[in-house]
Amino acid sequence: MFDRPEILMTPGPTPVPHFVLEAQAAPLVYHRGPGYGALLDEAVDGIKWLIQTDSDVVVYTSSGSGGMEGAVANTVSAGDKVLVVSVGFFGERFKTICERFGCDVTVIDYEWGNTAKAADVEKALDDDPGITHVFCQHSETSTGVVNDVEPIARAVRARDKLFILDAVSSAGAVDIEMDEWGIDVCIGGSQKALGATPGIAFCAVGPRAWEAHKVSTAPRFYFDWTAYKEAMERPDSESPWTPAISVLQGMVAALRVARDEGREGILERHKLLSRAIKAGVQALGLPLMGEDPERAVVVTAVKNPPGLTDKQIVGLLRSKYGIIVAPGQGPMKGQVFRIGHLGWFEPLDILRFFGALELVLDELGYELTPGAGVAAAEAVFKG
Ligand SMILES: Cc1ncc(COP(=O)(O)O)c(C=O)c1O
Which residues face 8 on adjacent strands? Predict the structure, then answer.
C-alpha cells in the first residue's frame, strides 16, 4: 500500500533533503585531483563554524563509532586512567572502547534517563588525580537527554585534564562552543542533524589533544590523526585513504544550507520542534522519560502507555503510516519509544506525526481525545 518514501523520525539517520540527495548523486570529485581539496576544505570550515572552533578537523570515512574509536586511539596509552561519564548506551560504548585500548576506566554510571552533573565529575577527578581523560556524551541518543556539558568541560579544563565529547547526535542541533567551553576533542557525524547519509564521522582536535596525541602509544592505522593532518597539509588538501566522496558532497551541501539559515536559526528550529513534540505527547497523556526535557531537543523518549509495547507502536506507525520511530535501547527495550526530531524537519512533519500516532494509539485501544496531540503541537507553532 505504501509507495511514498518513509519518514525517518529515528534518532538517526535522519531524512535526507533533496539538496543533499542531489549533491550526493552528482559525479564524483576524484580525491587525488583538482577540486577535492576545495570540497574537503569547505567541509572542514563548515564543521568549524557549526561547533565554533579554530581546531583542526579530521574527517573519517566511518560511522560515528569510528570517530569515538579515533578519539580514544589517538589520545590514550594502555594503562592510562580515564573517566567515562555514562548516562546510557553510548556512554557504555565509550567505556568498552577505552577498555579495549587497555585504559584503567572509572565510570560515573548514571541511571538511564538522568543527566550528568559537573559536581560529580569534579568529585571523581578530585578523588583520583591520576585520571587524565574524561569522555562524555552531549546528547545521549538512547534516552534523549542532553547533558549540560559547558560546566563539565570547564571543570575538566580547570583540572588540566582532556575533555572528549561525543556530539554525534547533537552537532548541528544543540549549541556547542568547543573553544569557548574548553572541549579538546569533539566528535560528530554526517547522518544526524546535518541530514547527509551515513558514512562520515569527524573529530575536531584542539591543541591540547594534539599534545596528548604526540605521547599516546595506542595502536592505530586507519584512524591515525597524523595521517589525516599530513594529507590535509599537502598543497591541495587530501584525505589519506579513499574518502566517502558522495557523502562529503552531500554534507557540504547541507552545511551550505545550514550556514544560510544561521546557527541561531538552526538551534531555535530544533528547540521549537522539540517543544511541539513534547506538548503533543503530554496532551495525549503519555509520560516523557528523562531529566530536563527542555534541553532534550534531539530525541524525545516516551514511556509506553500501560498495556502497550514500543514494538506495537513502532510497528504500526511504520506499516500503516510510513513513519519510522525507534524502540527502546538496552534496558529501555519494552519501556519507551523514541522520536527523533533532529535534522531537516518542519512543523508539518510534526503535525503529520501526531495524526499518525493518534490513529495508531486509538487502534491499539488507548483512550485519547482525537486531535489532542495535533492541537497541542499546533499551539506551540502558533506561539
Ligand atoms: C550519541 C551517539 N554517539 C555515537 C553514535 C555512533 O553510532 P554509529 O556508529 O552507529 O554512527 C551515535 C549513533 O546513533 C550516537 O547517537
Answer: 324
Residue to mutate (ligand 1; options 60, 92, 94, 141; most atoms within 8 A of CB): 141
In the structure, what pLDDT confidence band is assigned to residue 2 with cuts at 50, 70 and 90?
A: low
Closest-CA residue, ligand 1 atom 8, reads: 64
pLDDT at 287 over 90: yes
For the residues 181-194, what does the mean pLDDT come to?
Answer: 98
Measured in Å, residue 165 CA sits from the centre of ligand 1 at 12
CA 103 to chain centre: 25
Say if ligand 1 is within 6 A of residue 69 CB.
no
Of 72, 90, 338, the residue with max ligand 1 atoms within 8 A of its CB, to mutate for a pocket test, comes to 90
Q: Is the pLDDT of residue 218 over 80?
A: yes
Tell me which CATH code domain 263-382 carries.
Answer: 3.90.1150.10
**Does this model's pTM top 0.90?**
yes
CB of 65 shorter than 6 A to ligand 1: yes
Find out if CATH 3.30.470.20 is the number for domain 19-259: no
Residue matched to cell numbers 549533491: 23
Tell me the CA–centroid distance for residue 320 and ligand 1, in Å.
28
Domain boundaries, the chain: 19-259, 263-382
